[in-house]
C-alpha cells in the first residue's frame, strides 16, 4: 500500500512538471519610451510618417481598473506651443489577455495639438485617433510589444496606419556611416533576445521586424 501511494504521488509530481501551461500574467505594460513603426494601410497623398517614439504608461484607478496612455513624440514636441490640449490619449486597459495573448485598450480618446503661427514657426494642427490597440502580454513578451491602428491627420490631410511598437524604444541603430545598421539591434543587450527586430532607416531606432508578436 505504501509503495502504491508513493508511486501515485510521484506520478502526480511528474505530470505537473510536464505541464507547460503558463498561468495568466494579467496585463503588464513596460514604461516609458517605446519605438513604433507606421505601416500605411492604403495609398495616401499625405506626407508619409515612418514612425516615432511613443510614451506609453499604465495607471491604476481607485476602483481597481487600469488605464493606458499613449503620448506620441510629435504631440509632445508641440506642447510648448499649445498648452490647452494634452499630448496623450487615455483608454481602458483590459485586466487579462485574450486567447492570442494580447491585452486590448478600449475607448482611447483622440489627442491633438492646435498650434497657430508664431515667432517660433508656422502653425499646424495634428490629430491622433487610436483604435484596436493591443499590448502583447505573454511570458516571452510581458507588455513589451504592441499593435494598433492609427488615423493620423495633419493640417486636414488624413492617413491610416497599422502601428508596430516595442519596448525598449531608445535603442539607436545608426551605424558609423550614418545609415541603418541591423546588427546594432541584434547585439543590443537590452532588447529581448527572443524578439525579431530591425533598424527603421528613417527613425534609426530598433523596431519590430514583423507584425507583433514579432518573435524569432
List descriptors.
eight-stranded antiparallel β-barrel, disordered N terminus, mainly beta, 216 residues, two-stranded antiparallel ribbon
| Number of DSSP strand runs | 11
Strand order of the largest sheet: 1-2-3-4-5-7-8-9
Overall SS class? mainly beta
Instruction: Write down the Rg.
Output: 21 Å
Give the % helix. 10-25%
The succession of helices and strands, N to C, reads: HEEEHEEEEEEHEE
Stretches with pLDDT under 50, minimum 5 residues: 1-20
What is the general shape? Answer: globular
Tally the structural domains: 1
Number of helices: 3
Rounded to the nearest angstrom, the distance between the terminal CA atoms is 50 Å
Q: Approximately how much beta-strand content do the residues carry?
A: 35-45%
Subunit organisation of the chains: single chain
Mean pLDDT: 91
- Report the major sheet: 8 strands, antiparallel, barrel
Question: What is the topological layout?
Answer:
Elements: H1 2-17, E1 33-40, E2 51-60, E3 66-72, H2 73-77, E4 89-93, E5 102-106, E6 111-115, E7 124-137, E8 142-154, E9 157-166, H3 182-186, E10 197-200, E11 205-208
Antiparallel strand pairs: 1-2, 1-9, 2-3, 3-4, 4-5, 5-7, 6-7, 7-8, 8-9, 10-11
